Amino acid sequence: MTKRALITGLTGQDGAYLAQLLLSKGYEVHGIVRRSASADVVDARLRWLGIDGQIQVHDGNLTDLSCLIRILRDVKPDEIYNLGAQSFVKSSWQQPLLTGSVTAMGAHNMLEAVRLEAPEARFYQASSSEMYGLIQESVQSETTPFYPRSPYAVAKLYGHWMTVNYRESFGLHASSGILFNHESPLRGIEFVTRKITDGVARIKLGLQEKLALGNLDATRDWGHARDYVRAMWLMLQQEKADDYVIATGRTTSVRDFCVLAFSQAGLTMEDHVVVDPRFMRPAEVDVLLGDASKAKAKLGWEAECTLEQLVSEMLEADLERIKQREKL
Ligand code: NAP
Ligand code: F7E
């Protein structure tokens, strides 16, 4: 029988890759998309992957419980992936309450809608390594205590614990993936990796001279989104719901990411990068490094894409995109 999946955050990076994965597995894929005045560009990522038109789209918003209930009633999904969020950490200090409404209460609204309308469905919550924040252990696993450092991270922690609570209280098959940073050519341009590969591509093509960044010393455990959505799916195929860290086990500074991207383009970072305090944060997460050994043991999951391959794929895509846009 054809399985039916519902994705919130369909138009984001992970939503697009997850939809592609589920379609390739024969799923009927539904997604919730919020109304936008720029409706012609909201499906840009789905178009990039060539899967627009293959997904049944539902007009909705995570802040509106009534629409979530109605959508679940109509779709009757077997699997639900809650990827929708205000996901940009820096914006969460500028829009803390909006971040709470969407990222924390939005997850709770989804859980409540599932409890009421689809209690037999399997539920995935997109938790985040940002919850570790001011790290309490040098390598973070499922047992590491959390210490969130931004309104975004606090909101994610709420969604995370609600997922655990609904599993324990109501017996929902609700799993939480504590995913470390994952990137791709479909990453939003405001995030540092994409900002770097886009900047390097512009510099390479002679369209820009300098790239302004914030804290170059922060380090992140960066993987490829395509690998990470596979982990989401694997979590919902398990008989028992659980929480898993998904990470590569390698951490790299923003500076070294720059070195890699500039050198792949035959350029030198020192000639182009300038530090601009506007991109610093009120509270920083200095280091993140994940231990995904539980995911390896129980899900058989491991990251396949290396950082070098990731940078190369992102840079190639940005060069191509800019050449097309600028008609170079
Ligand atoms: P993303 O590209 O920022 O996508 C976020 C999605 O949420 C978009 O589709 C966005 O829609 C949607 N959204 C925002 N507000 C909404 C609302 N009020 N109602 C319904 N949908 C709403 O994020 P991503 O990188 O794909 O990440 C997916 C999820 O994983 C997020 O929850 C994120 O916080 C979490 N996460 C990401 C990472 C990572 O490294 N990428 C790591 C850990 C956890 P629009 O297109 O209309 O804006
Ligand atoms: O920052 C530093 C910045 O914005 C990474 C989200 O997907 O992953 C993401 O959150 C680091 C930080 O991602 C710039 O200070 C330096 O230390 O790419 P980012 P993030 O904050 O780690 C987690 C796991 C999520 O869950 C989130 O949803 O890079 N940095 N200079 C900069 N960051 C940005 N954005 N721009 C700069 O110019």
3D structure, described in words:
With 328 residues, the chain is an alpha/beta fold. It has two domains: 4-182 and 222-246, NAD(P)-binding Rossmann-like Domain (Rossmann fold, 3-Layer(aba) Sandwich); 188-220 and 250-288 and 298-326, UDP-galactose 4-epimerase, domain 1. Helix content is 42%, strand content 16%. The protein contains eleven helices and 13 strands. The chain has helices spanning 13-24, 44-48, 65-75, 91-94, 96-117, 151-170, 192-204, 225-236, 254-264, 293-299, 307-326; strands spanning 4-8, 28-33, 56-59, 79-82, 122-128, 173-179, 182-183, 211-213, 219-220, 223-224, 243-246, 252-253, 273-275. The strands form four sheets. Strands 3-2-1-4-5-6-11 form a seven-stranded parallel β-sheet, sandwiched between helices. A two-stranded parallel ribbon has the order 7-10. Helix 3 (65-75) runs parallel beside helix 5 (96-117) and helix 9 packs across helix 11. NADP nicotinamide-adenine-dinucleotide phosphate binds at residues 8-15, 32, 34, 36, 42, 61-63, 83-87, 102, 106, 126, 128, 179, 181-182, 188. Ligand F7E binds next to helix 7.
